[in-house]
């Protein structure tokens, strides 16, 4: 039905551009699931699985984990039944090889990427966003030392928890490496999707609500390619 939003959305952009923030909100709004390969990898690291142990050092250094490892985790996640409703990809694909692998996986179930949404934010802002962010250690709610502080200092607004944590790769130095990886390896993925007519670019420097409003209008647009 061409009035329905596309079922497969890729949130695309540099580290800190708001992919995760927007992907979670969009998934809630549409009743889809969010698949973050960063989250899948962090869970594998925490569980000390074989793949996690291999990926850990690369992630902490800000490099890209090998396509094989990421694809193995992704296939496992995509095989779960809740993905049938629709999927918002967050942080995948990050190489052209990953984009091609995704096309093949989706093709098996008669699907394709309907929309790739690029979030543009300048590098200085990205570094500030990432080096200031932290999450509640109990419920995972995200905060930022400048942009989003808890209402009561040191207490999570959502669950009342008082322990906060930061990601191991959120240091100023590692962010610079992650940005270089993005420009060298990931940005070329956009050129793979542009000829398919799937890309929309949004100003990711706007407020979270403004970006979300723009996002809703591009995923609901009838001109998408999967109809
Ligand atoms: P991953 O977990 O994907 O991290 P990332 O791409 O570096 O992105 P981030 O999670 O840092 O940022 P985001 O764009 O989601 O922004 P967020 O919404 O959090 O990857 C981590 C690592 O895993 C990689 O380096 C790599 O090693 C590995 N990896 C993952 N996937 C891989 C793959 N496919 N292949 C190979 N390796 C892979 O927002 C950031 C901050 O800004 C938050 O504090 C937020 O509150 C704030 N914010 C968001 N939007 C706004 C706004 N509009 N205004 C003000 N503040 C905002």
Write up what this structure looks like.
The protein has 227 residues and is an alpha/beta fold. Helices cover 45% and strands 15% of the residues. It contains 9 helices and 8 strands. The protein has helices at 19-30, 37-46, 50-61, 67-78, 96-108, 123-131, 172-186, 188-193, 208-220; strands spanning 8-12, 33-36, 87-90, 115-120, 133-136, 142-144, 164-165, 199-203. The strands form 2 sheets. Strands 2-3-1-4-8 form a 5-stranded parallel beta sheet. It has a 3-stranded antiparallel beta sheet with strand order 6-5-7. A hairpin with a 5-residue loop joins strand 5 (133-136) and strand 6 (142-144). Helix 1 (19-30) packs across helix 9 (208-220), helix 2 crosses helix 3 (50-61) and helix 6 crosses helix 7 (172-186). The longest helix has 15 residues, at 172-186. The termini are close together. The relative contact order is 0.20. The protein binds BIS(adenosine)-5'-pentaphosphate. The site of BIS(adenosine)-5'-pentaphosphate has 35 residues, from helix 1, helix 2, helix 3, helix 6 and strand 6.
Topology overview:
Elements lengths: L7 E5 L6 H12 L2 E4 H10 L3 H12 L5 H12 L8 E4 L5 H13 L6 E6 L2 H9 L1 E4 L5 E3 L19 E2 L6 H15 L1 H6 L5 E5 L4 H13 L7
Parallel strand pairs: 1-3, 1-4, 2-3, 4-8
Antiparallel strand pairs: 5-6, 5-7
Bound molecules: BIS(adenosine)-5'-pentaphosphate.
């Amino acid at each position: 039905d061409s009035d329905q939003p596309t079922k497969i959305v890729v949130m695309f952009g540099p580290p800190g551009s708001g992919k995760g923030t927007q992907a979670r909100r969009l998934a809630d709004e549409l009743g889809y699931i969010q698949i973050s390969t960063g989250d899948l990898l962090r869970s594998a690291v925490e569980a000390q699985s074989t793949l996690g142990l291999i990926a850990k050092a690369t992630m902490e250094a800000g490099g890209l984990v090998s396509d094989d490892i990421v694809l193995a985790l992704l296939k496992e996640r995509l095989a779960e039944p809740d993905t049938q409703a629709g999927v918002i990809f967050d942080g995948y694909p990050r190489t052209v090889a990953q984009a091609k692998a995704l096309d093949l996986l989706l093709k098996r179930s008669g699907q394709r990427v309907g929309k790739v949404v690029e979030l543009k934010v300048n590098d200085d802002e990205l570094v500030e966003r990432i080096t200031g962010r932290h999450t509640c250690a109990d419920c995972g709610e995200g905060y930022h030392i400048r942009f989003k502080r808890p209402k009561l200092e040191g207490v999570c607004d959502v669950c009342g928890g008082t322990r906060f944590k930061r990601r191991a790769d959120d240091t100023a130095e590692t962010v610079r490496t992650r940005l270089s990886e993005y420009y060298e390896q990931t940005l070329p993925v956009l050129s793979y999707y542009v000829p398919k007519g799937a890309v929309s670019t949004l100003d990711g420097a706007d407020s979270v609500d403004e970006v979300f409003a723009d996002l809703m209008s591009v995923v609901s647009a009838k001109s998408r390619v999967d109809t």
